[in-house]
Amino acid sequence: MWMLFNRICTSRARLDGKTAVITGANSGIGKETARDFYRRGAKVILACRNIELAKEAVEDIKNNPPSGIDEGEYRNGAGELAIYFLDLCSLKSVRNCARNLLKNEATIHILVNNAGVVLLPFKKTEDGHELTLQTNYLGHFLLTLLLLPKMQLSSPGCRIVNVSSILHLLGDINFDDIYLERSYKEWPAYNQSKLANILFTKELARRLQEANINGINVYSLHPGLIPTKILRHSDNFLFPGTYYCFNLFASIFCKNIVQGAQTTIYCSVDEKTANETGLYYSNCNVATPQWRARDDQYAKKLWNLSCRLLDLEPKADFITFLKDVSCQLTE
Prior knowledge:
The chain is an alpha/beta fold. It has 12 helices and 8 strands. It starts with 18 loop residues before the first strand and ends in a 5-residue tail after the last helix.
């Protein structure tokens, strides 16, 4: 019965000649999104930390078409697959990945910021940022800014898709203690990072429009409750067997991974969303996020804080700001 409420992306749009970058594409939603883009003829770049798993994902994508797609049709219409190393826990790695993409890829049309972690104990990265915040949000914030000039040259028809979560409804941005050091808990850290994804989407869309940068649309979304590896650390957080129990529950009552990828695919390719930007989606539809995610001042305040955390000056002129961001690649 529940399956009847899971919408799918019905667009038949082709992506021939287009390049898509997907973070965390070696498993779960990211891999299924990569499979779909590959089927549509795109050059799909799997930006991953684990290169061995990424290689396995590439072979799986090449040899296993989506359900209902003829194998011959799949191979004849398929695009390309490539792997780039990206560790969002390291801003040096983010910059290196961006530098390599800008150097080696003629165009970038789609960026899917998909990688994420949850239920990690408090830890700071080598850059001094709280691990969940940097992995789920801050690393993607920087990667997006670094790739924007290339996407601007690749436009029109470019899209940036930020994978959030319905748990942003329980989130808030602790501007006075962004790392939650005074009262760290795993779920609030995750919820904050996912609210940040939506606020980033809203503010980036506004700044692109204000700077008259056309042809790049921005989306955020909730993929659904899905049995993926994102909860692999839950045994340490709750009790041994939590991960198994959750996946068993989710496999019966929630979306499978293919269904969970549909809203990401919808935002990335569907013709209906081509003229939409800055919105939040769920189940292949525009949805309403919590009030903080709709607050312009909240979004601006987070943008400015994020810039400071990355040693960037949040200048009013967005074109000049992007040039300053690009200077980080030469440092």
